[in-house]
C-alpha cells in the first residue's frame, strides 16, 4: 500500500475509474501491507465501503477474502468464524457508509471547510487567475490577525467524533 491507507488506495482507484474487486484483508499501517487476516476493523471497512458507495458499487467486482485464520486457529469452526467476521465487518461498514452518504456528512463537512474558495481570493485561485506573485502581493501586507481570522480549523477531531457516533448509532 506504499504507506497509504486502504481507503486512500481505493479512492485513487475510484478516481481513476479503475475500482474493481477489493482485497478485503486486514491491513497493518506499521508494515505497509495487508496481513492476509480476515478484516475486523469497523473504521477501515466503513471508509472502504464509503468509497464503494461513492463509486456506485463495484460493478463486476466484489470482496475478495484472500485471508486465512491466524496460526493458532486451525479448526473448521475457526475458518467458519473467520468468514463470518469478515463478512459482518464489511456489511456493517456498508450500513454505516450508506447512512453517512444519505446524511451528506462528509460532503457538508468538506463544503464548509473549503467555503472560502466560493468567493473572493479563493474563487480567483480556483479559477486559475492567481499565481505565486499575485498571492504574495495579496498577503504580504495583511496583518497576522486578519490572516488568522480568515483561517478555518480543520475540525478533524469533530469529524472523528461524528464518525464514531455514526458507527455506534447505525449498528445499534
Between the first and last Cα atoms, what is the distance in angstroms? 32 Å
Kindly state the number of beta strands: 4
Q: Helicity level, as a percent range?
A: 55-70%
Question: What does the overall shape look like?
Answer: elongated
What is the CA-atom radius of gyration, in angstroms? Answer: 21 Å
Number of helices: 8
Query: Which stretches are low in confidence, meaning pLDDT under 50 for 5 or more residues running?
Result: none
SSE pattern: HEEEHEHHHHHH
Percent in strands: 5-15%
Largest sheet: 2 strands, parallel
Side by side, the strands of the main sheet go 1-4
SS content category? mainly alpha
Average pLDDT rating: 90
Oligomer: single chain
Please describe what this structure looks like:
The chain is mainly alpha-helical. The chain is 56% helix and 7% strand. The protein contains 8 helices and 4 strands. The protein has helices at residues 6-15, 42-54, 76-102, 105-113, 120-126, 132-140, 144-149, 156-170; strands at 22-23, 26-28, 33-37, 63-64. The strands form 2 sheets. A two-stranded parallel sheet has the order 1-4. Helix 1 packs parallel to helix 2, helix 2 (42-54) packs across helix 3 (76-102) and helix 3 (76-102) packs across helix 8. The longest helix is centred in the middle third of the chain and has 27 residues, at 76-102. It is elongated. The protein starts with 5 loop residues before the first helix and ends with a helix.
Q: Keywords, please?
A:
single chain, 172 residues, mainly alpha, two-stranded parallel sheet, two-stranded antiparallel sheet, 4 strands, 7% strand
